[in-house]
Design a protein that fits this description.
The complex is a heterodimer of chains A (483) and B (225). With 483 residues, chain A is an alpha+beta fold. Chain A contains 16 helices and 11 strands. In chain A, a hairpin with a 2-residue loop joins strand 7 and strand 8. In chain A, 36% of the residues are buried. With 225 residues, chain B is an alpha/beta fold. In chain B, the strands form 2 sheets. In chain B, strands 6-7-8-3-9-10 form a 6-stranded mixed sheet, sandwiched between helices. In chain B, strands 2-1-4-5 form a 4-stranded antiparallel sheet. The longest helix of chain B has 16 residues. Chain B is globular, with a radius of gyration of 17 Å. The chains are: A alpha+beta (483), B alpha/beta (225). At the A-B interface, helix 1, helix 12 and helix 16 of A face helix 3 and helix 4 of B.
């Protein structure tokens, strides 16, 4: 009749007390199980949502930081991101491919934009996207595909080559084909009106077609049809030339420049970077490394701010954690008091063990075992019922959190920092609230089960500490020799 | 060599600045194979004396020796586990266990070497003190007072100890049952070479004892038997 058998005999032969303890732990266990299930479901949802995030990120301005720095020092301006830094970031192991682009709008006297609206006159502009990666990252990520011709080669990228890729729609309405030449003008407006300062002749080397993205409306803000790709070098040269001409018109603006300054020295290009990650889940690691490489005032920008997207599930996680803490605290308190109360009824039994010379550690073990046996059964039952309860309850709570999240997001959308947006291109659709809701699934996986048993049994073990302390203080003489 | 030696033991309670002595300079020895009775009026310190012999309490000064070794050095818990068996007036059995299980609890706690088949030993012991198998398998709260005290005696014997201490073992029993219990205790001393020390009011028990001590005003005095 060792301590284990004594514990089992106590559990089985005192059914009233066993059932009371079982019910208490079962009820509290349901709350713990629910909270653990919600926490696990939130963790799983975070992983699913991160995997759904667009893999493209950009290095952009940290508006908040810049505003703080500007408030401290009104002359503060973030220094332009150097090509060297951009390429250093591109060499990080998390990066699958990258590019950096400059943008410039040039006017054309002879071409029409797509779709034809009927009132297009001379002076129609097209937005050029600069390319440094000859394979064109938009093509690699499936946003466009080459219909005819080819992409750029290294030589064209490095040298000042007036070559371009246009969309199929623009080519069709303007009767363009591979080999055609398009004329664009670098235009300056001054007091005398419109003045053409340079004309460029671009040879079409390829024609592309945008790939319709599911869920994206036609003619989205990206205006893929009217995009023209050309090497960065061409656009930098045109920008620098415009600045040169402008400095002649407005020398007072450029007074800080040396007399020998030539437009070929122009080094103020602001590049829009794009990095495609191997795995969106590695975003945080990527961010960490980038922080040490970029100048002050820059951060990694994602298509969607995950912290903002995850607000509803994070709120749920916080509530679940709060409930878990309360439930664990209540379990420790209630179970401790209950076991102590039961042990007060068993003082004589404990006194008998002590008079027989039983070691206190074994008596503590016996009590712990008695409670653990009951708790294991109660926890096993509550694992299933708590999971079912939390499923229904948390889905309702998540729906409420999503509604609250939508209101916050709308407020944020209205916020305009005033800085040029160096954002991402969004190679995948933004995470929708439906994505959040569908990624949140309460189910019993091994991790949840183990976590719940760990938390549940750990809490119960904690609850036994006070009763065990009570037992160690018992004096067999006082218990057994008073009649 | 005496089995148990009590040497200049004092026990008192603080009473303001003074001390109220329960036991004062008590010394005596107890041998194997003898049945001792310790008499005394209520409040004379009989139970305190027994609790010191049974390592349920510590003397304020003086020593209790077992085979000339201080029981404090043996360890009070270890001493209770391996050297003595205690029989209480209120039996002190575990109520939701059977008689045989109560015996086996004591057997599982002691470090003394016992026969392998504890079940058989427990049933034999109960049979020896007059409880058949049917009664041995009953939960103890379904047994009479006399039967419960027999179970308590069997439990004290089960751990193969040399000293049996009994605190008013017949206090709750009728005269016939008292005689039976006293007979059993006598048999333990004389046939099984145990040292049996009984604290009692009962002159009936004192008559059966080999030596009688009386506690009076904290002093232990040997009486002619």
């Amino acid at each position: 009749m060792n301590a284990v058998r004594r514990a089992m005999a106590s559990v089985v032969r005192k059914p009233g007390k066993t059932v009371i303890l079982l019910i208490i732990i079962f009820v509290l266990g349901n709350i713990i199980a629910g909270a653990v299930s919600v926490r696990q479901a939130v963790e799983n949802a975070e992983v699913t949502l991160r995997a759904k995030m667009s893999p493209d990120v950009a290095i952009g301005y940290d508006e908040e930081k810049i505003e703080t720095l500007f408030a401290q020092n009104p002359t503060f301006r973030p220094e332009p991101l150097s090509v060297e830094t951009i390429e250093k970031i591109g060499a990080l192991p998390y990066v699958k491919s990258f590019d950096y682009s400059t943008f410039l709008s040039l006017e054309t006297p002879s071409l029409q934009r797509y779709p034809i609206t009927g009132n297009q006159a001379s002076g129609t502009y097209f937005a050029f996207t600069g390319v440094n990666n000859p394979e064109i990252i938009d093509m690699q990520e499936g946003m466009i595909h080459l219909v005819t011709g080819r992409a750029f080669n290294e030589q064209e990228i490095r040298n000042l080559s007036y070559v371009a890729l246009v969309s199929q729609d623009v080519a069709n309405i303007n009767n363009l084909a591979v080999g055609s030449v398009m004329n664009f003008e670098n235009v300056m407006y001054d007091d005398s009106g419109r003045r053409v300062i340079a004309t460029y002749h671009f040879e079409i080397i390829g024609i592309f077609e945008p790939i319709k993205q599911p869920g994206k409306a036609d003619g989205s803000f990206d205006d893929w049809e009217n995009k023209i790709y050309t090497p960065n070098r061409v656009l930098n040269d045109a920008t620098a030339f415009w600045v040169e001409e402008d400095s002649k018109l407005h020398p007072e603006i450029y007074s800080d420049r040396a007399d020998s300054y030539s437009y070929s020295d122009f080094d103020e290009t602001i590049y829009n970077t794009i990095y495609v990650l191997n795995d969106p889940a590695e975003l945080e690691l990527f961010k960490e490394e980038v922080t040490g490489l970029v100048p002050e005032g820059y951060i990694v920008k994602t298509r969607e701010n995950f912290d903002q997207v995850a607000v509803p599930i994070r709120s749920l996680q916080k509530i679940a954690f709060f409930i878990l803490c309360i439930a664990v605290g209540a379990t420790v308190l209630i179970t401790s008091l209950l076991i102590t109360l039961f042990l007060r009824d068993r003082r004589r039994e404990m006194g008998i063990y002590l008079s027989l010379g039983e070691r206190k550690i074994r008596m503590a073990g016996q009590i712990l075992l008695e409670v653990i046996v009951v708790a294991f059964i109660a926890i096993t039952l509550s694992l299933f019922s708590g999971n079912i309860l939390s499923n229904g309850l948390s889905e309702k709570m998540l729906a409420d959190q999503i509604v609250a999240g939508q209101t916050n997001a709308a407020d944020l959308d209205n916020y305009n920092s005033g800085f040029l947006d160096l954002g991402t291109r969004g190679y995948r659709n933004a995470i929708s609230h439906e994505d959040i809701a569908s990624s949140y699934v309460v189910f019993l996986d091994m991790k949840t089960v183990l976590l719940f048993y760990g938390v549940g049994l750990g809490t119960v073990c904690l609850s036994v500490l006070i009763p065990i302390f009570y037992v160690t203080r018992l004096n067999p003489k006082k218990i057994l020799m008073k009649y | 060599m005496s089995l148990v030696t009590v040497s200049k033991v004092n026990y008192f309670y603080p009473d303001g600045d003074a001390r109220r002595y329960i036991l004062k300079d008590v010394s005596c020895t107890f041998e194997r194979g003898s049945f001792y009775a310790i008499l005394g009026e209520s409040g004379s310190g009989k139970t305190t004396f027994l609790s010191l012999l049974g390592a349920l309490d510590k003397p304020k000064s003086g020593k209790v020796l077992y085979e000339e070794q201080d029981i404090a050095a043996i360890g009070f818990e270890s001493f209770r586990r391996n050297k003595i068996g205690i029989i209480f007036q209120a039996y002190n059995l575990i109520p939701y266990m059977t008689a045989v299980e109560n015996i086996k609890v004591a057997m599982s706690i002691t470090d003394n070497k016992l026969p392998k088949d504890v079940n058989e030993v427990a049933y034999n012991l109960l049979d020896y003190i007059g409880l058949d198998k049917a009664k041995a398998d009953r939960t103890v709260n379904k047994l009479s007072g006399g039967e419960q005290q027999r179970v308590a005696i069997a439990r004290a014997l089960a751990t193969n100890v040399d000293v049996i201490l009994a605190d008013e073992p017949t206090g709750n029993l009728d005269e016939d049952m008292e005689n039976e219990i006293v007979a059993i205790l006598g048999k333990l001393a004389h046939e099984h070479n145990k040292c049996v020390i009984v604290v009692t009011h009962s002159t009936q028990i004192a008559k059966q004892a080999d030596a009688v001590f009386k506690l009076r005003k904290g002093k232990l005095e040997a009486m002619d038997n």
